[in-house]
Amino acid sequence: MLLDFEQPIAALEGKLSEMKKLASESQVDVTDAVLALEEKIKSLKKETYANLTRWQRVQLSRHTERPYTLDYIKGLSPTFVELHGDRNVKDDKAMVGGFGELDGETVMFIGQQKGRNTKERQFRNFGMANPEGYRKALRLMKLAEKFNKPIITLIDTPGAFPGLEAEERGQGEAIARNLKEMFMLKVPVICVIIGEGASGGALGIGIGDRVFMLENSWYSVISPENCSTILWRSWDYKEQSAEALKLTAKDMLGNKLVDGIIKEPLGGAHVDPEKMMKTLKKKLQETLEELNALSSEERIMQRIEKFSAMGVVEE
Questions:
Q1: Closest CA to 205 of 242, 246, 233, 177
Q2: What's the average model confidence in pLDDT over 218-234?
Q3: What letter does residue 56 receive in the DSSP assignment?
């Protein structure tokens, strides 16, 4: 999948490939030309990805080759054991979770899971959880608290499922319950937005001692397309909506709504998933060590104070 702003880079990479092929077939020494073109590509990449618009960041967050929740979980913890069901309605496939290990420490992983092809997307409901998904997440959080295990949530959803049946089963109540309960969890809670962080769907597992965003993720009350539809009755103004919403990781950190940005490989997490995994793992290990040094009472009070201060303006 090639995004529009990546076309100039792809064109140069195509020329580089042709040049190397020509050199191989004709035995002509083009080493200097190859090095110069490689340097030009590297420079263009740095310039392009350093100056992305907010809408372009949104596009990168949705890249079909980008690692999803289960990719990260299995990369971080090969011993991961998935747990199922909310013990009330059913097992929501859009929300996944279970125990795993992080550098020898048992942790509870929870997150939304998208699909890579049409069949998987339907199976996972495009990463949009129903009420039973949020109740499942809460059940797993309480289980982690019972056994005194830290919780790591990985957020990647276009929003909670907006269907009539979801509302009938109490979508709003399920998310609200999660918000209340997550404030009072006695164990460390780390939340990471790895892709899309839309509305209450993201907030339902987004209350933590530390909230981080990957460099090319976004976090907002509404998606640019839906914002454009409401304001202009058309999706044609999604780029303007993205700019107005100020939904990038840099924007969120500037507004003190998240605690940090986790850098991605040049070009996005999908370019080098292994490097992205190592970077994320290191950040999680450092943060867990920091949070484990605090008492549960200190963590709860800091959590409450942090979120209570959001949106407050002093003149």
A1: 177
A2: 95
A3: H
